[in-house]
Amino acid sequence: MGKTLAEKIFDAHRVNMPFPDTHVLKLDAVFCHEITTPIAITDLQARGKDRVFDPSKIKAVIDHVTPAKDSKTAEQGRILREWAKRNGIKDFFDIGRNGVCHAIFPEKGFARPGYTIIMGDSHTCTHGAFGAFAAGVGTTDLEVGILKGVCAFHFPKTIKIVLNGKLRPGVFAKDVILFVIKELTVNGATNMVMEFTGPVVDEMSMESRMTLCNMAIEAGGTCGVCYPDMTTVNYLWKYIKDEFKTKEDALNEYSKWISDKDAVYEKVYEYDVSDLEPMVTFGYKPDQVKPVREMAGTKINQIYIGSCTNGRIEDLRIAARVLEGKKISDDVRGIVSPATPEIYSLALKEGIIEVFQNAGFCVTNPTCGACLGMSNGVLASGESCASTTNRNFNGRMGKGGTVHLMSPATAAASAIEGKIVNSSMFV
Ligand SMILES: CC(C)[C@H](C(=O)O)[C@@H](O)C(=O)O
Ligand code: SF4
């Protein structure tokens, strides 16, 4: 019987199997940020276990609220910073070099095909775009991971999502994943791996694949995964070129992280997305999704372009194409947060930052910021935001505020009009 990609990763990392449905896996990486890791650090310290299993496999960043906005967030940063220093964690990204965790870690080459990765963050599923098993975990698992380099998981039942056809211009990975979540609902993939395959995924850049996998958790998925291919190799090449002689060698090696043809799935969904339209959420659940056409004219107060879903260079390029030579409506506030310093620099070089500024956007430093409503663009009660982020939960970006999730193209077009519109009228 064939195996899925996730089963193969489990087989290669399993340490033991003390219970029938518990698989203890060796970890290739533990990612950390300043909101959840300090809780684990403080507890480990209190128990006299202020150690890490391997400092080279731990990566840490201050990203959620940075620069610190108050004493509490300053303290969270301090705990993470001092811990990283104390424990010899070299890959620690502090202010000036920091970016959104799920953007900066892949950019630095820390997510690789076949890897097992955990982090105390629900969108850790993003890293599955590289053909890795990457899952968000709670404090206890994070502590064990930091200390022992292992984590216990249930057997990875997999849902396969085959995306056929060709996306129309103006339709992006974000529209696809919003559509998939609408079809599966917010618990349609609970505790399962969502495997994204098919010609549409094959055509996607790593950035787009990360957008897809990023929102797996919004359908309840433990992890989203894509098969590694030449696109993956090209993205990682600068980090792996000493390990492999040629890109073909790298591809050969990574090809073992692809599901077998006769692998067994919990369910297979097959969609032709050739006719898919730009999508947007309404309400407070990420499966409340409609075509933008049906929401056109909905008034918005703020536009946010950024986050681990859509704050990468590809996203900024798309938004800038829509905004070029235009001004955003006087009735809205536009905020863009490039997700990492490298993305920011590239956007500067390419004139994208200037496009945003000329259009009337406020450009912030790389941070999660407005995405979780803690800083850098909190909504007032009754306000709504057209946002490229991944969660539209009630009050997510500010108490009493509403969030409409959409692609960067739709967000940029909506900024110009001051209400939700289809980006195709601009591109
Ligand atoms: C702060 C963190 C625990 C949280 C998460 O896990 O998702 C955040 O990143 C979010 O998106 O709400
Ligand atoms: S950008 Fe938003 S969703 Fe992503 S990790 Fe930060 S707070 Fe969470």
From TrEMBL:
Q: Which UniProt keywords apply?
A: 4Fe-4S, Amino-acid biosynthesis, Branched-chain amino acid biosynthesis, Iron, Iron-sulfur, Leucine biosynthesis, Lyase, Metal-binding
- Please give the cofactor(s) recorded in the UniProt entry for this protein: [4Fe-4S] cluster
Q: Describe the location of the Aconitase/3-isopropylmalate dehydratase large subunit alpha/beta/alpha domain by residue ranges.
A: 7-418
Task: Kindly list any coiled-coil regions of this protein.
Answer: none
Transmembrane region positions? none
Q: Which reaction does it catalyse?
A: (2R,3S)-3-isopropylmalate = (2S)-2-isopropylmalate
Q: Which Gene3D superfamilies match?
A: Aconitase, domain 3 (3.30.499.10)
Q: Which CDD domains match?
A: IPMI
Please give the superkingdom of this protein's source: Bacteria
Q: In which pathway does it act?
A: Amino-acid biosynthesis; L-leucine biosynthesis; L-leucine from 3-methyl-2-oxobutanoate: step 2/4
Q: Family assignment?
A: Belongs to the aconitase/IPM isomerase family. LeuC type 2 subfamily.
Instruction: Describe the function of this protein.
Output: Catalyzes the isomerization between 2-isopropylmalate and 3-isopropylmalate, via the formation of 2-isopropylmaleate.
Q: How does it assemble?
A: Heterodimer of LeuC and LeuD.
Q: What is this protein called?
A: 3-isopropylmalate dehydratase large subunit
Source organism per entry reads Pseudobacteroides cellulosolvens ATCC 35603 = DSM 2933
Q: What are the top taxonomic ranks of the organism? A: Bacteria, Bacillati, Bacillota, Clostridia, Eubacteriales
